[in-house]
Write a structure and sequence with these properties.
This protein has 668 residues and is of the alpha+beta class. The protein contains 26 helices and 26 strands. The protein binds zinc ion (2 copies). One zinc ion binds next to loops. One zinc ion binds at residues 124, 217, 502.
Length: 668
């Protein structure tokens, strides 16, 4: 084997294709190994070297990296940290060039308001590599961006582009830290008045609206504006009169404590208030004076930070921040803790977690989108003792969300008339989770406050019931922060949900850092290597899984089977196919699922999609809906029904359901 010989052009192209196709899913070394092994089957095969691999990957990354610019951030010790930041217009153009899905979605977004678009930013810290032996170099801050006008796609992870990333060890050297970095991002985004996008329909002029929105957990919010957050006297970014738990007693009007349940009483701390506070801090006469001011204002002075940058702060003021449903409710949030409280109460009443688990597993519960018996999931995930600790449920956010419905069902059965206060609070929590689920799966944009009235009223009732049941001491800052979920939803026209981003993090977490051992201590090179890979993975997956779907996603279309002659006749569409899955904006439905429309229900037997007919379901009709405290009860029939979904329907899959005789019991 001619190890030393250079690869032929054909071989280079072939290897490059192999490296490109894997996106970032496996390491270059792994691809090389397989490619070399397979090439041994050919006579006179040449081996590719690690260097060949590096060169070809660099070529693959090159078009994407051309959209990035390197900036230098000053450090406390006088040197600089290099930071690669995307030019958003150019990166969107590259996404359009490389992905059909992106060009379709951008075409729609651009035409929705004459090319004016609103940028949404998100950042979070991700720990990569071995979680049991975390290395400082493995802590990376990821910065993603998308556009509000891509509305229906925002809950798809491939609709978010990574526009920059920086290792924690570098960021903490930057004077002014995250706040300074975000000032740079804000300024750069709005440096130009707009940009051209070449779309299939022609060249379009696009511009970003002056205000950018920001979505994150509380920690990232605190770092962005350099505010004290939950630990300070003023635990809320948005309110000026809400005081921390340390002042539960002697709170007099107009102040209120974080236990307060009436959103009408919260007074805003405006952007102007923040700008003024930051200016005062910047010009404080002495260090002592500055520290006093910091305490009162709830902000910390960050040199070159977002709040002291007169241009950057206008584009990204504190009022642009959005809280999200995952962090306030389901990831160490309001629901996670109350699940924990309820498990403890059940134990005190003689019903152990083990009893609960056995009882749930012996029923024939089925879970949305799997349609199979869910007992393995209940036994090993949802009700496994390792998922609980002193504070509550520790599992994934989506699991906490489902568990509320299941636990509530058993609370109704097992506690009957005991523990009335705790039961009342938990019933309101279930109602809240149900309302949040409807908002999550809503097809149309949420652009009127009235759509959120029920959410607001349930939150108010739940807050009061929770305090009554567990006492003011049990209230945490997130119990207050959730009151800003409604206004955050109205800002984005979408129920903000960081599940999307947290799931996207796995691409960095997985093999990426291991792939990059050589550059792990060279921040700037690591940034470039990862940015290129992440981009390629995003556009590849966007085309594979689809960005915005009303019908069968691309992967399901590829393996679709022609529908029966009778069905094609009935729906008058000769292109009609039976598909494995139908995607209705945010809802994914498969055969076997129970699908509930407002007053109609069915057990799906076939998902159908055709060019003329659009998506349809063939289902066994469910009849005689009876609303229940846990959801609804239906009568199963053998009657075939053809159901056509519409964006005006409240489409829903129950979190869990089971057949009981001829009845179908749905938890939602
Ligand atoms: Zn997070
Ligand atoms: Zn507040």
């Amino acid at each position: 084997m001619g190890r030393k010989r250079k690869l032929s052009q054909a071989e280079q192209d072939n290897l490059k294709e192999c490296l490109a196709d894997t996106g970032g899913r496996c390491s270059d070394q792994a691809v090389l190994k397989v490619w070399n092994k397979a090439s041994e089957l050919r006579a006179g095969a040449k081996h590719a070297t690690a260097n060949d691999g590096r060169q070809l990957t660099a070529e693959l990354n090159e078009p994407c990296l051309r959209c990035f610019e390197t900036h230098e951030l000053p450090t406390l010790t006088g040197d600089t940290v290099r930071f690669c930041l995307a030019n958003l217009g150019e990166l969107l153009q590259e996404a359009t060039r490389t992905s059909q899905e992106w060009s379709l979605v951008l075409e729609r977004a651009v035409s929705s308001d004459g090319g004016r678009m609103t940028c949404i930013l998100y950042h979070d810290e991700v720990t990569c590599g071995n979680i049991l032996a975390p290395r400082k170099s493995g802590k990376v801050c990821m910065l993603y961006a998308s556009l509000m006008e891509m509305h229906a796609s925002l809950s798809v992870e491939n609709a978010w582009l990574c526009i920059g990333l920086v290792q924690h060890q570098d960021l903490e050297r930057v004077s002014g830290g995250m706040s300074r970095l975000m000032a740079l991002v804000s300024r750069e985004l709005h440096k130009h008045s707009g940009f051209h996008l070449s779309l299939p329909s022609g060249q379009k002029w696009c511009s970003l609206r002056a205000k950018t929105y920001f979505l994150s957990d509380a920690e990232a919010q605190r770092a962005t504006w350099s505010v004290k957050g939950s630990s300070g006297l003023k635990p809320c970014l948005f309110c000026c009169n809400v005081l921390s738990k340390s002042c539960l007693q002697d709170v007099t009007e107009p102040f209120c404590s974080i236990t307060a349940a009436d959103p009408q009483k919260f007074l805003p701390f405006t952007d102007q208030d923040y700008f003024q506070a930051a200016d005062e801090l910047q010009h404080a006469a002495s260090k002592t004076k500055r520290q006093q001011l910091e305490k009162v204002l709830g902000t910390t002075y960050a040199e070159g930070g977002l709040l002291v940058d007169p241009v950057a702060r206008v584009h990204l003021p504190p009022s642009s921040s959005c809280v999200d449903v995952l962090h306030v409710y389901f990831a160490n949030g309001v629901a996670s803790w109350e699940i924990g409280n309820m498990i403890k109460i059940l134990e005190e009443e003689g019903i152990s977690l083990e009893t609960l688990r056995e009882s749930a597993c012996s029923s024939d519960w089925r879970k949305a989108a799997t349609a199979q018996n869910a007992s393995a999931y209940l036994r090993n995930v949802l009700l496994h003792p390792k998922m609980f600790d002193e504070t509550g449920f520790k599992g994934q956010g989506r699991d906490a969300w489902s568990l509320v419905f299941l636990l509530h069902y058993y609370v109704l059965q097992l506690l009957e008339d005991r523990q009335q206060l705790a039961r009342e609070s938990f019933s309101l929590l279930r109602a809240l989770c149900s309302e949040l689920r409807c908002l999550k799966y809503r097809c149309k944009p949420i652009n009127e406050a009235a759509i959120l009235d029920r959410l607001v009223s349930l939150q108010t009732k739940h807050q009061a019931a929770y305090v009554k049941s567990y006492g003011a001491e049990a209230i945490k800052p997130k119990h207050h922060h959730r009151f800003h979920l409604a206004e955050s939803t109205l800002k984005l026209h979408w129920l903000p949900n960081c599940e999307v981003h947290e799931s996207k993090h796995r691409h960095v977490k997985g093999g990426f850092l291991e792939n990059q051992k050589k550059s792990i201590n060279k921040g700037w090179e690591l940034q470039k290597a990862l940015l290129g890979r992440l981009f390629r993975q995003t556009v590849l997956d966007a085309d594979k899984f689809g960005l915005n779907h009303w019908g069968a996603p691309p992967a399901a279309v590829q393996v679709a089977k022609k529908a029966s002659w009778e069905m094609r006749q009935r729906l008058q569409d000769d292109t009609l196919c039976v598909v494995k899955e139908l995607r209705l904006v945010r809802l994914s439905v498969k055969a076997g699922d129970v699908l509930l429309f407002d007053t109609v229900g069915g057990v799906v037997t076939q998902c159908l999609d055709g060019r003329l007919a659009g998506p349809w379901f063939l289902a066994k009709r469910l009849k005689n809906k009876i609303s229940q405290d846990f959801g609804s009860l239906w009568t199963a029939t053998d009657e075939d029904a053809l159901l056509q979904p519409s964006v005006d329907h409240g489409l829903l899959l129950p979190a869990f359901w089971q057949f009981v005789g001829d009845k179908v019991l749905c938890l939602h």
